[in-house]
Amino acid sequence: MKLIDSHIHFWDVANELNSWVKKTSLPQSISPEDVDATGYVHIEAHAEHLSPLCELTWLRNTFATGNIRVIAFLDFTQPLQEFERRLLLLAAQPEIVGVRQVMASSRVSAYSPFQQTLPADLPRKLAMLAANNLIFDAQMYPDQYLPILDDIIASDVIMAMEHMALPIATSAENMQTWQTLLKLVSQQPNCTLKLSGFDIVNHNNDITRVLDILFDVMPMERLCWGSNYPVSNQNDYRCWQTRLSNYLGDPTIENTVFYQTANRLYFNGTL
User: Fold this and answer.
1) Tell me: the pLDDT tens digits for 108-155?
2) Domains in the chain, number
3) Residue 154: which CATH number?
4) CB atoms within 10 A of CB 100
5) Based on CB atoms within 10 Å of each CB, which residue in 29, 64, 145, 249 is the most buried?
């Protein structure tokens, strides 16, 4: 079976792009040569003060990139003129298919890396992404999405919602909001959900309950697998893929979730 990993991080701390990794127990180097999928969507993880092209440049200079697409960093809080300048720089790179800035902020979860308010001009910036055929790889909590969902949809941007849109299985309020969000985005063809990163804010023993809810609401053709490796399951690249495959138990659904959705979304059906 073909596999496209829609959410993986490649890095090598020796090149000084991802110095934060040195302070963790994560592997110091992860490359396409360490894993074995058909294709990869590399998600930026470099220091924000560096050029948004730094990881792409490293990948180009070190590996064959025909089966790699890149989600680059773009600061949505910067002034509109600078945002547009950087956006156009990224859009000119064929491997870059989208952008992200982690904007997850929560009152109930310890995982709350974004300590600012969402920018007021976010809808206009999303429309600029849409005009330049760049995907919005979004990482927010359900209560962040809901107030701006109409604006996101109106912008015509294609949105990939990272880490299942961050459900918190132990929070009744979050789960209720998450289910409301799922029902709304299930009707929006421009919205795809990534089956990745559940362990960031959850215990893995809650995954079956969450997947049952998710597959009951979302069309399977708008779901795609992502390993979130090596942040998740750093000792076993195939751990989450195996568990999800066992849950699905249907070759047709597996082909959609593990390959077809990501191939259409990130590779324009070419891989």
Assistant:
1) 899 999 999 999 999 999 999 999 999 999 999 999 999 999 999 999
2) 1
3) 3.20.20.140
4) 19
5) 145
- For residues 140 and 104, the answer to whether their CB atoms sit within 8 Å is yes
* Domain containing residue 81: 4-267
Cβ-Cβ contacts under 8 Å for 15 (sequence gap 6 or more): 58
pLDDT in tens, 147-195: 999 999 999 999 999 999 999 999 999 999 999 999 999 999 999 999 9
Q: How far is the C-alpha of 232 from the C-alpha of 137, rounded, in Å?
A: 18
